[in-house]
Write the structure tokens for this entry.
Amino acid sequence: MFDETRIIAATKNLVETNPLLAPNAINSLEDLAVFMHSHVFAVWDFMCLAKTVQNHIAPTGTGWKPRNTQLTRFINEMILGEESDQFKLDGVEYTMSHFEMYLAAMQEVINLLPDSSRAHFQSLFNKIPEQIYSMYIWFSMTKDSPFPEDTGISEEARDFMTVTRKFCFSASYVAAAAFAYGRENLIPTMFDKVLDQLTINNLKVPFFKKYLERHIELDGDEHGPMSSKMVDLLCQEHGAHLVDKCYATAEKSALLALEVRANFWLDVNAQIQQYREASGNS
């Protein structure tokens, strides 16, 4: 069985020590806007990693080959929730991908900003579709293709997506480990901290709050445990003579995913501090 001991310790260290998750790290709408603008690319490449795992387990094509039905059930159920979630907010029913939900939450935050900062963040937001399309093309190219030039994407987001892309070109259990432990199992605790920040600092952003709550609910109760089991099953598929090697490689992948996330959050926290200083809100 896959040993999660070191991964659990690394996860605990990240959520307890990373300054971006401290109670007052995000204490204004401007702070939140800075955070969300960087994080939107992690929301998008989450789906790239998820779809990579799905393509390993349940690929699409004209022909169909039977596969481990438990694995198929796990990944298809996760994709259903991430790609076409259904939820209610203020009596209105929505069917949206979590990426679309995040974009709606970003616009909600921008609309609440004071006049002095709204235009700046709206301009950044308006560039996202073109930037995401550039990333889509890049993720669809060959493994060694360089990061596109002149995208306007921050170095921090670029570095994060570069590692995600490497996972997408890796073996099934490597991609699944990065997905399970760098995303699904980490997100509930991480977003719990962000949700606390909204409450502590009286930031009233209902759509973003709902986004966080849906991830906490789905990933904590369902997707996290399923994704962990998925890693174990994918490693076991390689047979008893290779399973330990697969476990070791999967653990390395999971720890790298956590390290990259921690570094990304440090960089985003620094961006927030820089914006505060530049705008005189430090």
Notes: The chain has one domain: 4-53+68-279. The radius of gyration is 19 Å.
